[in-house]
Design goal:
The protein is α/β, with parallel strands linked by helices. The chain has twelve helices and 16 strands. It binds adenosine-5'-triphosphate. It holds the Pfam family ABC_tran.
Length: 361
């Protein structure tokens, strides 16, 4: 666990980068710092590994003030990933990753063997190990950067806009990879981004910052999207908050109809293995959009139901076999109790109701 207690950084020129920040970063989870340029995100991150020393306040790592720990020892327990990966240009990929284990005193063979394992862990083919960084794509370089940060098996990982220099498709892949790695490794991750989409995708806890490192809101992504603290946070979150929030909710609770159900003249055709092939009916054959209740979100289920000619998404298991049909109504029902419709006669057509002043007449 990392704790910021009244952390403040004033630069000699009088600039206040961060003022009096109190924050708990829970162990084994991903905490994302997000906010506009210059709000103090990088400063906060670097306070943890003492690349920046607070002018007042302190940062605790598992209850110990980081200022009391020798910087070199502290940094051995903290992986650090930055934008553009920050690899050594003149060293091959494998040696880039093996650098820290070598510094920790491992012999060359052990360090390289560990580096090869890490290369595989971050999803890079073995042949990349002998290349130099300039021979890799931006996304591959970022993967090497993550592998290098993991090389000493540090309990804490600091990530400063690690994926911002790559295109959106590669970026989505890297985000996916980080979530997969985290589900295996359970590191304490402090991740900086200025991209709110990335923040809600990756964070267990999202900290929205304003200038001088002031916290506008600290919450889990679902709470952030559905209950922003104020208009400023809502504006920062942008449009379609409700729909994006559905992307964070699992589709496990959607009630399913049997696969053979006839829906407005449409029936699902499946192959010999039980996998859906098409919707058939009304003299037509149309694609059958699917979702996996165990892995996908309510947003994916709703999307598949909206695209289906039968008005229902096909639920599939891990082998792609159809397990049931989710109508649009069933997906909406899984959102929870609806706000009651106004009863007949309660509709107002000429503007909002004006309440009687209290205590009047
Ligand atoms: N050495 C320095 N001297 C004076 N001011 C500094 C120094 N380093 C950073 N700052 C200022 O401190 C503030 C916070 O900087 P920081 O890099 O932490 O912001 P950030 O939120 O990470 O920004 P970005 O998203 O643009 O990277 C900024 O106003 C910056 O100009």
């Amino acid at each position: 666990m990392i704790t910021f207690e009244g952390a403040t950084k004033r630069h000699p020129d009088g600039t206040v980068a961060v003022e009096g920040l109190d924050l708990d970063v829970p162990a084994g989870r991903i905490t994302v710092l997000v906010g506009p340029s210059g709000c103090g995100k990088t400063t906060l991150l670097r306070m943890v590994n003492r690349m920046v020393e607070p002018t007042s306040g302190r940062v605790l790592l598992n209850g110990e003030d980081v200022a009391s720990l020798p910087a070199a020892r502290l940094r051995r327990g903290i992986g650090y990933v930055i934008q553009q990966a920050g690899l050594f240009p003149h060293r091959r990929v494998l040696d880039n990753i093996a650098t820290v284990p070598r510094l920790l005193g491992r012999d060359r063979r052990t360090a390289r063997a560990r580096a090869a394992e890490l290369l595989e862990l971050v999803g890079l083919p073995p042949e990349t190990s002998r290349r130099y960084p300039f021979q890799l794509s931006g996304g591959q370089q970022q993967r090497v950067g993550v592998a290098r940060a993991l090389a000493a098996d540090p309990p804490v990982l600091l990530m400063d806009e690690p994926f911002s220099a790559v295109d959106p498709v590669v970026r989505a892949g890297l985000q996916e990879e980080l979530l997969r790695l985290q589900s295996e490794l359970n590191k304490t991750v402090l991740f900086v981004t200025h991209d709110i989409e990335e923040a809600v995708r990756l964070g267990d806890q999202v900290v929205v910052l304003r200038e001088h490192g002031r916290i506008a809101q600290c919450a889990d992504p679902h709470t952030l999207l559905t209950a922003p603290a104020d208009d400023g946070v809502a504006a920062f979150l942008g449009r379609d908050r409700g729909l994006r929030g559905l992307g964070l909710r699992p589709a496990t609770a959607v009630a399913l109809l049997p696969v053979g159900t006839d829906l407005h003249g449409w029936r699902l055709a499946v192959d010999a293995g039980g996998r859906p092939t098409a919707w058939e009916g009304n003299g037509e054959r149309r694609p059958a959009p699917v979702f996996a209740p165990a892995a996908d979100s309510l947003r994916s289920a709703l999307d598949a139901a909206v695209l289906s000619p039968a008005g229902a998404a096909v639920a599939v298991d891990g082998y792609g076999r159809a397990t049931g049909l989710a109508t649009r109504a069933a997906v909406l029902a899984a959102l929870g109790p609806a706000v009651p419709e106004p009863a007949a006669g309660e509709h107002t057509v000429d503007g909002p109701t004006v309440e009687e002043p209290a205590g009047g007449r």
